[in-house]
UniProtKB/TrEMBL annotation, chain A:
Record's protein name: Extracellular solute-binding protein
Residues in the signal sequence: 1-22
Domain of life: Bacteria
Organism: Streptantibioticus silvisoli
Gene3D superfamilies reported in the protein's UniProt record: Periplasmic binding protein-like II
PROSITE patterns: PROKAR_LIPOPROTEIN
Automatic annotation (TrEMBL), chain B:
Official protein name in the record: Sugar ABC transporter permease
A Pfam family assignment: BPD_transp_1
Transmembrane regions: 31-52, 97-119, 131-151, 286-305
Subcellular location per the Swiss-Prot or TrEMBL entry: Cell membrane
Family: Belongs to the binding-protein-dependent transport system permease family.
UniProt keyword list: Cell membrane, Membrane, Transmembrane, Transmembrane helix, Transport
Topology versus the membrane: Multi-pass membrane protein
Residues in ABC transmembrane type-1 domain copies: 94-305
Residue ranges, annotated region (Disordered): 1-21
Length: 428, 313
């Protein structure tokens, strides 16, 4: 009896193993030319959900035979983790409206993304809508595995009341240079206006440099990405200047080394934050805010300062069985009309050329968003390279050790990071 | 008489045909198998298969792909293990776990036993205290981490009470103190569970032993050391092994309380590295090798702890 039970269990195991090896996805030749119902995933941002549901309702009214269902991205520590897990399980939505460009090389390697160039006119459509910035979203093989969708150009949002309390002109703070920024930060802390000047997350997550070092480096280097033509760009005078700027803020205890268990800006625990236009809606009624560009060593006019895009793309996944419908929905969701609705609902900038001209009346009514719209045309993306996440994690580890916690000289750490990242890029 | 009844040879019950008795005799042992089968299947599917698959992955260049994507997984021998041992962050994570276990395990065993002995005595509000110690164990780590962040932050309650004696930089961003704070946090959080284990074990310690100790003139401490401690030795083995296993799998606390293993990897743990490498950076082969190393280490530590706690039995 026991032998028979054991045999039955072994048979069960073999069936399970065989079935897991025989997993199959949709036939691309069929899926690429099929129309029908699809599912799309949205982020958990309340304004984006509102826009997404309205967009889907608009589509469904016009296309009752190709019904679209909108859902939130399944819960995970990050949406990228949930997307990666869904690729492996083969149950991704057709479209995800929250793709991080840094994850695209990894999703490509997992054979999880559909190259949008598969659809006639796709590359031309993306380039016409996004302009020259579209090149940053093209993969090394010349394909677009993502549709650049919306950007949150990173700028410095500041609390006018705290500035006034510290004796800084809240309407014209003029903190364009590192020296002025540091001097103002010292005033904020020494006057007791706020316990800290600026409070970026000191956590070790690979994506944290996008909100402290990377915007400063991009601004100082006049728009260089972290890596160009397979070579790290930050072990340079511009990279070292940006590193020294942040190191000064930590060393002089103007930026805390600890993570704040809440929103330091909203709770008045800090005077400034590196954020995109999404923050305006988030801080509405909580912070009397002003906005200024990321500082540089010697200062430069606001209309010349480049910054990090904090862009989110729309990705089409290979689990999609009705890809023609998905492509049509993608074009519909990124049309001039829907982009206008997205801007109006979320305050985030569609990846579209001439934003200020196209939506002039909206910007006239919402002047606070104009600096972000202006900066949107000078945004720089994370490099689209294989090993992207490894590279950012390595950078963050070296940055944390030296700049935040002072365990190593920042210059030495920067050089070390450059050498290690070159090695990572060479391995892929 | 009773012995004779118990050992009497089985015979068909009066009035029941022999065929029924035979069927019953054949069926009864099978019932046991059927009862045990669901758990065996569960073990095979949830533990054995993933463990063997993990072992297989650790010897191959491997990454997860979408269904239908055929990517050959090349045999690489011990290359993933070499990468694991060559990684300074991994080595640091094992040192950190060593520090954690040295603080957490003895503290857990001693505090849980002392508290269980105290809660086993007739105390006023005993039920309240039992529930109070158990509460952190059933509360979500995320909520408790937020409370501890406020307590141990640079302007938190602990630093305010300590004044100039508080460390600089503060606890959670201090390379020396980050890991001990995590060890104290986990000890406090898990204590209720281990107190319950000891309370259950204490119910099996014979009252006669305490009476005998009392007659021999033993004081409270001597009674505790000579009767209670040996009496709950099997529970001590369980508590020690459990504490080693949960401590070695440390993840949530360094991820949330010290900002992902900070400052500068001072509180990074092997499971946190597995998460970064396996999930975030899509290197399941490296993570699998690290997982195997961790399993071997935990098994070895558990066997040593078992031998140590059962010494003299």
């Amino acid at each position: 009896m026991f032998r028979r039970t054991a045999l039955a269990l072994v048979a069960l195991g073999l069936v399970a193993a065989t079935s897991s090896c025989a997993r199959s996805g949709p036939d691309p030749a069929v899926a690429d030319t099929s129309r029908g119902p699809i599912t799309v995933w949205l982020s958990d941002n309340a304004q984006e959900i509102g826009w997404g549901n309205a967009m889907v309702a608009d589509w469904n009214r016009q296309h009752p035979d190709q019904k679209v269902t909108a859902r939130q991205i399944p819960a995970g520590k990050t949406s990228e983790e949930a997307e990666s897990a869904s690729i492996i399980a083969g149950n991704s939505a057709c479209l995800v409206f929250n793709g991080s460009p840094a994850s695209v090389p990894q999703f490509q390697q997992q054979a999880g993304l559909v190259a949008l160039n598969t659809f006639p006119g796709a590359a031309a459509y993306i380039k016409a809508r996004t302009g020259a910035r579209a090149a940053q979203y093209e993969s090394a093989d010349g394909e677009f595995y993502q549709m650049p969708w919306k950007t949150n150009p990173v700028m410095i949002l500041y609390n006018k009341k705290i500035f006034a309390k510290a004796g800084i002109d809240p309407d014209h703070p003029d903190l364009t240079t590192y020296a002025r920024f540091v001097a103002a930060s010292k005033k904020i802390v020494s006057s007791g206006a706020a316990p800290s000047a600026i409070w970026p997350s000191p956590a070790s997550d690979f994506f944290q440099p996008w909100y402290d070092y990377y915007p400063a480096f991009i601004a100082q280097s006049h728009g260089q990405p972290l890596v160009k033509d397979g070579k790290p760009q930050f072990d340079s005078p511009a990279g070292r200047a940006a590193m020294d700027f942040w190191n000064t803020l930590y060393r002089d205890k103007l930026a805390p080394q600890e993570a704040y268990p809440g929103d330091a800006m909203a709770e008045g625990r800090t005077a400034m934050a590196t954020v995109g236009p999404w923050a305006i809606a988030a801080y509405q009624g909580k912070v009397d805010w002003g906005v200024m560009p990321v500082p540089t060593q010697n200062g430069m006019p606001a209309d010349q300062v480049h910054t990090f895009s904090d862009e989110k793309s729309v990705d089409m996944f290979t689990a999609c069985k009705n890809r023609l419908t998905a492509w049509d929905v993608l074009k519909f969701a990124t049309s001039e009309q829907q982009d206008g609705k997205l801007l109006s609902a979320t305050g985030q900038m569609p990846m579209r050329t001439n934003l200020l001209g196209t939506y002039a009346s909206w910007f006239a009514r919402n002047a606070g968003y104009r600096p972000f719209a202006d900066a949107a045309s000078r945004t720089v993306e994370v490099p689209d390279v294989a090993g992207s996440i490894d590279m950012w994690q390595e950078f963050r580890d070296d940055y944390s050790r030296s700049v935040i916690f002072g365990k190593q000289s920042p210059d030495a750490a920067l050089h070390e990071a450059s050498v290690k990242i070159s090695k990572i890029l060479a391995e892929y | 008489m009773s012995t004779a009844t118990a050992t009497a040879p089985r015979s068909p019950a009066p009035g029941r045909p022999p065929a029924t008795a035979d069927r019953r005799r054949r069926f009864l042992p099978r019932v046991g198998h059927w009862f045990v089968t669901p758990y065996v299947v569960f073990l095979l599917v949830v533990f054995a298969y993933p463990l063997l698959y993990n072992l297989w992955i650790s010897f191959h260049r491997f990454y997860f792909t979408a269904p239908g994507a055929h990517v050959p997984s090349r045999w690489v021998g011990f290359a993933n293990y070499r990468d694991v041992f060559a990684d300074p962050v991994v080595r640091k994570s094992f040192v950190n776990i060593g520090i954690f276990l040295v603080i957490n395990v003895p503290l857990t065993v001693v505090l849980a036993l002392v508290l269980a002995a105290a809660l086993n005595a007739k105390l006023p509000f005993r039920g309240f205290f039992r529930a109070a110690f158990y509460l952190p164990y059933v509360t979500a780590s995320v909520a408790l981490v937020a409370v501890w962040s406020f307590l141990f932050g640079s302007d938190g309650l602990v630093d305010k009470v300590l004044g100039p004696l508080a460390p600089d930089p503060s606890w959670l961003v201090n390379s020396t103190w980050a890991m001990p704070v995590l060890a104290f946090f986990v000890t406090w959080k898990q204590l209720g569970f281990f107190v319950m284990l000891y309370l259950a074990a204490l119910q099996n310690v014979s009252g006669e032993l305490y009476d005998a100790a009392s007659v021999d003139g033993a004081d409270t401490l001597r009674t505790f050391l000579s009767v209670t401690v040996p009496g709950v030795r099997p529970a001590t083995t369980v508590v020690t092994v459990f504490a080693i296993i949960t401590g070695s799998n440390l993840f949530t606390e360094p991820y949330l309380l010290t900002g992902g293993g900070g400052p500068a990897d001072a509180s990074v743990s092997p499971v946190l590295v597995m998460y970064q490498k396996g999930i975030e950076q899509a290197h399941p082969d490296f993570a699998a090798a690290l997982g195997v190393v961790l399993v071997v280490l935990v098994v070895a530590l558990s066997l040593i702890a078992r031998r140590f706690t059962e010494k003299g039995d």
